[in-house]
Amino acid sequence: MINGLTPDQAQTAADYMAANQAKKVALIHDNSAYAKDLADFAKASVEKAGGTIVAYEAINPEEKDFSALVTKLKGIAPDATYFTGYYAAGGLMVKQFKQKGVSGLFLVGDGSFSEDVIKIAGVDNAEGLLITATPTAEFIEGAEAFTTEYKSTYNNLAPGPFSALSYNAVNLLVDALKRANSTDHDALKKAIKETKDFKALGQTISFNAQNTLDTSNFAVLKVAGGKFTLAK
Among 30, 54, 114, 193, whose Cα sits 20 to 30 Å from the Cα of 91? Predict the structure, then answer.
């Protein structure tokens, strides 16, 4: 799978908030290692862009009632709130924030990129919810043929969250094997590291000195009418 890393996702969120004049940002995580890591990177990215973290809160993901936190944030009136945990708590939080009328944008990380977050929140409450994630095939320009072939192969099953990224990884591996002209581990590793401007579904792949993607493939999605769409 060819994917950006946590700092890339955090930067995507920070860039979107900055572009939408969200200067006062509340960050919420669920104390899991991944969610806290994403919240920490988001804090650094927001502050680097000139924003202010007005709240940095941890929740118990088993909790069902977030009324104390919601009331606190309503008083703070953030321009945006970013929840970096998973959809079970995320859906409930979205619902309670909307019902309490907390100000600002509400974003969730890719741990909440699931139709279940809409079901838990309710379609009306989830309207306008923003999600930072690597887009599925339906949101990738030029992936129509891939989607058609995928459905044909797998009994009309739509590509999953990482299907297109896995497809890109296999194609990149094939390309690297050709360039290395060998299956030797070191030769193949070198060829992958030297990948430059490899054209793939939804991304052009190059690697930097840190051996990570030169260009992030994270995007911001938005819930509209109970469906995920690309945010404009």
Answer: 54
